[in-house]
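Hi L.,

As promised, Diphosphomevalonate decarboxylase:
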Amino acid sequence: KKIANGKITWKSPSNIALVKYWGKKENQIPANPSISFTLDTCATTTTVSYQKLEEEGNEFSFDLRFEGKPKESFRPKILTFFQRVEKYLPFLKSYHFTIETSNSFPHSSGIASSASGMSALSLCLMSLEKELHPEMSGEYFNKKASFLARLGSGSACRSIEGDLMEWGLHSDTEGSSNEYAIKYPYPVHEVFKNYQDTILLVDKGQKQVSSTVGHDLMHDHPFAEKRFSQAHTNLTKLRSVFADGDLDGFIKIVESEALTLHAMMMTSLPYFILMKPNTLEIINKIWSFRERTNSHVCFTLDAGANVHVLYPEAEKEIVYQFIKNELVAYCENGQYICDAIGYGAKK
Ligand code: PMV
């Protein structure tokens, strides 16, 4: 079959790590395994239009548009991505691509769009690959999409499917791989179904430390080896936590992982503090709320000041009241996003 031109759209979600990926080796191989909840509302929609060129070019040929306008500033990132994946998608130089993206979350909200953006783009390219190789299985499609997304941005490999995704070789997880993420293969108690994530936008500014710089800081880090082995231990502990619905155990691991991620940044050279005073205010409010109620609300953090507030669906009403009454005041312009666990990318 001759494919001349066409158009593909994917909507891919963001994800929030419970055990954090921080530190990598060559080829986007993670220094330790990680696990995340796939999100539902926070997502990137990407449309790739493709036109077959008369003859294969020497360079990649593409135009970029973001939320309806040309966006040249994305070019270096996309170019690097194309160079990394060309081996696995040999058709890339035979087409001209127009790549249009938009995010469901507000501009410069401090929410990283690399996971949702790179996974959406990888899925679009896989759809073209599937048109060229229609016999491809659905399982292979998802695995290779995750593999390609990893080469774009490590954590993006965990955004193809949901609701709980694990990435990185871990001796206690059957089928785990450094190359792509897998669906968490063990039992998960129903208290974790439809888990809620309210993202408090504490600081909407540009990230102070890019994740590339952050991962690099782990290379000569005095605590690196201890940290990497701790991630393995935490993943092992999570297995019974998920199976038994042990919310207290879950909170301990998730909050410790968030603080450890920041501790790694505070103890690297150069060192960084990515939390803001309001990040700490929110953490203290969450702890005191948990002490005076029997709520299981907890927090996690990305490599920035924003706070992800995690809680079971059964506590939605009371925690949401608490967030509105006590936490929103610490958000920049009172902004926050209500999200929940999602099930992966959609066409
Ligand atoms: O995917 P990257 O290279 O942007 O790294 C993301 C790292 C964290 O978000 C801090 C942790 C994680 O596992 O997602």
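The domain at 194-340 is CATH 3.30.70.890 (Alpha-Beta Plaits).

Thanks again for sending the construct details.

K.
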